[in-house]
């Protein structure tokens, strides 16, 4: 399994950013996959997951602002992030879970991460 993220950067509060993840070694259309983030000094948390036909998971902290999607033809996963807040600042990872039961599931594989900084 290989996951390569892109699309991070610096954005002002209230702005938007889209993260992309190119997956190989598995098929995103038939396997659960998600995005997680890590703030320095804190643990890693799932911020989105997609599994089954198109079931999704979001924690309350990002619900209504983040949207996960997948392009099955390109075997890619995306995270659209709107109304970004300074507290969204973190390293974001595309990852595969050990089970589809977000957020309790662990991490089976993950990419190198991409930095998202929300600041004015």
Mean pLDDT: 96
Shape: globular
* Strand segment tally: 11
The arrangement of helices and strands along the chain is EEEEEEEEEEE
How much helicity do the residues have?
under 10%
Low-confidence stretches: none
- Calculate Rg over CA atoms: 13 Å
Quote the distance from N terminus to C terminus. 37 Å
Q: Assess the beta-strand content as a share of residues.
A: over 45%
Number of H/I helices = 0
- Helix-and-strand structural type: mainly beta
Largest sheet, in brief, is:
7 strands, mixed
Give an overview of the whole structure:
By secondary structure, this protein is mainly β. The protein is 0% helix and 52% strand. The chain contains no helices and 11 strands. Strands 2, 4, 5, 6, 9, 10 and 11 form a 7-stranded mixed beta sheet that branches. A hairpin with a 3-residue loop joins strand 5 and strand 6. It is globular. 33% of the residues are buried. The mean pLDDT is 96.
Ordered list of secondary-structure elements with their pairings:
Layout: E1 2-6, E2 9-11, E3 17-24, E4 33-38, E5 44-51, E6 55-57, E7 66-71, E8 76-81, E9 90-97, E10 107-110, E11 114-118
Parallel strand pairs: 2-11
Antiparallel strand pairs: 1-3, 3-8, 4-5, 4-9, 5-6, 7-8, 9-10, 9-11
């Amino acid at each position: 399994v290989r996951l390569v993220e892109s699309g991070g950067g610096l954005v002002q509060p209230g702005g938007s950013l889209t993260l992309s993840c190119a997956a190989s070694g598995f098929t995103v259309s038939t396997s659960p996959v998600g995005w997680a983030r890590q703030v320095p000094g804190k643990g890693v948390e799932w911020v989105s997951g997609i599994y089954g036909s198109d079931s999704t998971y979001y924690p309350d902290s990002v619900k209504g602002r983040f949207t996960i999607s997948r392009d099955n033809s390109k075997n890619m996963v995306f995270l659209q992030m709107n109304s970004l807040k300074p507290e969204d600042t973190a390293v974001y990872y595309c990852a595969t879970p050990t089970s589809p039961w977000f957020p309790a599931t662990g991490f089976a594989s993950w990419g190198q991460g991409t930095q998202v900084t929300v600041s004015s």
